[in-house]
Amino acid sequence: MKNRPYILLTPGPLTTSDTVREAMLRDWCTWDEDYNSLVQDLRARLLAIAGGDTAGYTSVLMQGSGSFVVESVIGSVIPRDGKLLVVSNGAYGDRMETMARMLGIDLLTYRTADTQVPDPQKIRNLLADDPAVTHVAAVHVETTTGILNPVAGIASAAKEAGKVLIIDSMSGFGGVSMDVPALKADFVVSSANKCIQGTPGFGFVIARTSELEKSKGRARSHALDLYDQWHSMEKGRGKWRFTSPTHIVRAFYQALLELEQEGGVAAREKRYRENHRILKEGMAALGFTTVIPEPLQSHIITSFYPPQAAGYDFKRFYQNLKDRGFVIYPGKLTEAETFRIGNIGDIFPDDMRRLLVAVEASMYWNSRSSKQEEA
Asked: Torsions phi, psi of 63, nearest 5?
């Protein structure tokens, strides 16, 4: 591939196709009708892959990383007298809690261990005990570990209680089959540089139109006012309020076309699952243990404990893999040393097989180097 010194085995930014990168080589004017028409087509295509009957839903794009977009939702849709229940089992659920606290939003948190999934019945009990809660926010795929949360159960608990539901599907949308209308989700947030395989720079929200309309005037930030951003795109037929990341938008449009050419979300999910299977089985054969048990493990990113082997050092291991053309992620758990390997992006089963060869070679080098240093 062109301009690819190594493969990013991370949960985003991730490895993109040549054609996605090449789409950024042209300049665009934010006021031009051609560009705005492209934005409108992009918004419609996002709705088309949200699953089911999306009548009553809309999509809105927002500048910044995924966290910017999550904060735009939390800060825009919860009224001053509202209360948010955050369901968390990792760093990204915790981040939503931090956002709400800093925005002065009344808050209730249900926190489980990073290696456990939330219990929908516990959510029902919390909502029954605290009727002041108006909104529930949860993470679909918690990138801290790669755990796949029971989003359908969480959604049922929230909607049975009549609450507005916010789902951070940053690492799930486009790579994990989901039906937003069937979940009755009100706001689903994701980013350009995840499973749709675009580049970093903006995120998007699949929103229930009626709930978005209620948020007019609620925003706690001017730049991150979700309603105002949506209203400008509707009124201006694709016009962003402020300067849009034109090159990244065009690359994302190309990525959407490539998702459709691959066969849609189902086909992409199948490829990611095969990537994960090859990785999991191959790493186990090399002595690595997964952090998350298979029934709870997503196919997006996989966390591993280090091997119980003399001479292992993550920094050296990381550099050895990078020298061989692969970049992985350090872990985010506080109670144990781990590392993470992403299964998403423009990567394929043969890439995972080559990675396993590189891992085996890197571990041999680690052990040999350690013995040389001790001598």
From this structure: -65, 155
Residue 194 corresponds to which tokens in the numbers above? 């995840």
Whether the link from the prior residue into 150 is cis, omega within 30° of 0, is: no
The tens digit of pLDDT for each residue in 294-311 reads 889 999 999 999 887 667
What backbone phi and psi angles, to 5 degrees, belong to 117? -95, 155
Are the beta carbons of 310 and 205 closer than 8 angstroms? no
Q: Which helix (H) or strand (E) holds 204?
A: strand 202-208
- Contact yes or no for 291/333 (Cβ under 8 A): yes
DSSP string, 2-63: TT-SSEE-SSSS----HHHHHGGGS---TT-HHHHHHHHHHHHHHHHTS-S--TTEEEEEEE
**192 close to 24: Cβ distance less than 8 angstroms:** no
Looking at the whole model, is its pTM more than 0.85?
Answer: yes
What Å distances lie between residue 44 and 60, 64, 92, 267, 353, CA to CA?
A: 10, 21, 28, 20, 37
CA dihedral defined by 314, 316, 320, 323, rounded to 10 degrees?
110
Report which secondary-structure segment, H or E, holds 98: helix 91-102
The per-residue pLDDT for range 142-195, each reduced to its tens digit, is 998 999 999 999 999 999 999 999 999 999 999 999 999 999 999 999 999 999
